[in-house]
Amino acid sequence: MAACGKESNPTFKKDQAVISTVPENVGESTSSDGITTVDRQPIDQVDPKQERAFVWRLDLFFLAIGFLGYTFKYIDQTNISNAYVSGMKEDLHLYGNELNYFTTYFNIGYMIMLYPSCIITSYVGPSVWLPLSEVFWGVLTCCLSTVNKAEQVYGLRFLIGFCEGTTWPGYFTIISQWYLPHEIALRMSLYNMAQPVGAIISGAMQGALSTNLQGALGRAGWRWAFLINGVCTIFIALIGFILLPGYPERPNPLSRFYLQDRHLAIALARARRVGRKPQIGITPKSFVRASKSWVFWAVAIAWPIGTNTVPSNYFNLWLKSLKNPNGTAKYTVALLNYLPIVGQAAQLVFQVLVCGFSDYLGVRLPFLMFHSAISITSLAILIVRPSNQHTYMAGWYLNYLGA
């Protein structure tokens, strides 16, 4: 970023967006590598009222589209379980471990793409790479509506996971560049909220489609769900090309209708306030340096361990296994999709409360311990497997809170 000399003795006026050091000759320049950067004179202070308005503006546009994108990311990740209990198992003759393999192939693709995606994002920019990947996995999700055997699902699930591996690092990178440290936890909780919201929508959609579109145009309800999920994902991705902001020093040109020069000046001033450096491309040297940090390995180990303690994704499979005394299924296909919504809704509210209070009080560890205690309690119930079915079901619902 090119910067002009700083004015002396800046004057602060409360009714201005920023103080008088905001330059009038803000422009853009293109470096030799083709990256467009914003040239502006740095400012020293920002009117608190205008700063709050700026954060609200970010929340309204960026967080909104990011939330929708992450919601459909989770829908496209988990809809395989809803389809499985809604007729896919019988139609494709899946009577072995195929569902586990569907998840395994997805996770392999997801894992392979995580680090390369971070590198690509650092050079291409999240406002291009994220929605482009989302278009690809939306098309692949539509393709799931045409499968006739498990092997086709394996390949598509691997490719969907490969494309979705861009999402988490991409959105987190944007948040870390535009928000201050004390603002991040609540915003990340909104993205985590997208997981239960996505699961709720997926279950509700599958339940409704299994009832209302079963057999329409010769297609099973679970096939319609994949098709509709994919089309919605593509639509959200196209909007993302416009609304995702890029980086403060390399903004997305299409998002300039809501991030004007004065907003970018505020963003850069906030970044300097906390000593945040401009985003640069990841090099082999910087990757090796990061891998030497204990934090790198602690997160790499803790994350999969935490994921393995969330069996709630298989709640509807347990429900499907329950039978009436006469041997018939205890729950209808619609209920198999609707009952998990209770736990997902509770998870949504719980995440907002925990992350909101954590940000408000400025502490993390007590809330992490409380969250872990709930997870351990739920796992203890599920491991013991009490004969009382209501107690066992309570263990499943507690696991949603500990997810």
TrEMBL record:
<feature type="transmembrane region" description="Helical">
    <location>
        <begin position="54"/>
        <end position="72"/>
    </location>
</feature>
<keyword id="KW-0472">Membrane</keyword>
<dbReference type="InterPro" id="IPR011701">
    <property type="entry name" value="MFS"/>
</dbReference>
<feature type="transmembrane region" description="Helical">
    <location>
        <begin position="365"/>
        <end position="384"/>
    </location>
</feature>
<dbReference type="InterPro" id="IPR036259">
    <property type="entry name" value="MFS_trans_sf"/>
</dbReference>
<feature type="transmembrane region" description="Helical">
    <location>
        <begin position="224"/>
        <end position="247"/>
    </location>
</feature>
<protein>
    <recommendedName>
        <fullName>Major facilitator superfamily (MFS) profile domain-containing protein</fullName>
    </recommendedName>
</protein>
<feature type="transmembrane region" description="Helical">
    <location>
        <begin position="331"/>
        <end position="353"/>
    </location>
</feature>
<keyword id="KW-0812">Transmembrane</keyword>
<dbReference type="GO" id="GO:0022857">
    <property type="term" value="F:transmembrane transporter activity"/>
</dbReference>
<dbReference type="Pfam" id="PF07690">
    <property type="entry name" value="MFS_1"/>
</dbReference>
<keyword id="KW-0813">Transport</keyword>
<dbReference type="InterPro" id="IPR020846">
    <property type="entry name" value="MFS_dom"/>
</dbReference>
<comment type="similarity">
    <text>Belongs to the major facilitator superfamily. Allantoate permease family.</text>
</comment>
<dbReference type="GO" id="GO:0016020">
    <property type="term" value="C:membrane"/>
</dbReference>
<feature type="domain" description="Major facilitator superfamily (MFS) profile">
    <location>
        <begin position="62"/>
        <end position="403"/>
    </location>
</feature>
<feature type="transmembrane region" description="Helical">
    <location>
        <begin position="294"/>
        <end position="319"/>
    </location>
</feature>
<keyword id="KW-1133">Transmembrane helix</keyword>
